[in-house]
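Its record is set out here:
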Amino acid sequence: MAKQANNKKDEFEAVQEALGTSEAFIEKYQKQLLIGVGVVVLLVLIVLSIRNFYLAPREVTAENEMYKAQTYFATDSFALALNGDEVDCIGFKNIAADYSMTPSGNLASAYAGICYYRLNDYQNALKYLSQFDGDDSYLTTAVIGLMGDCYVGLGDNAKAISYFEKAGSLKNNVISPIYLKKAGLAYEADKQPSKAATCYQAIKDTYPESQEASDIDKYIARVAQ
């Protein structure tokens, strides 16, 4: 019992000592601590102000501009969708530049890249597609795959394959098998049938319900010869 009492006394004294040390530290650095807390509070207020009073209104404006450009995009008027009509549509390229910090500005980069691709300007297509940063599985996979298509247009088969395989690895049930097949075809063009077979087999094993899987056996048989 005496030993337990001594242990409790020692623990109590240790706690008191720790509290005393903390109080002494706070007293010594009170000014610096208050300044630090003030800086954190100020930063939080700045972030909230930017989000609520700057970015939110700009996102509304960007969404309105996106709708106008998307109308042209839907009718395959890619030059107008990209550059605007000089009347009331500023186009995806300007939306991406003017509203880059908003979700719509980010999405406009993807649209601008697609427009440039459809206009056969592959370098600018790559520039804008690479600016897109999204977490939507469908669109992200499509953008990465389209970058591979751009490299095909530029005659760089090696880079095209790397993007096709990356798109194929993202496990999107609709888009990934499309680009795995493109990777396989590109490998065939490069006289690498074993690597093409790997891509085709991945379609059969991983995406058996996809459209690409419906006739994939003939591609597997072709590269096995």
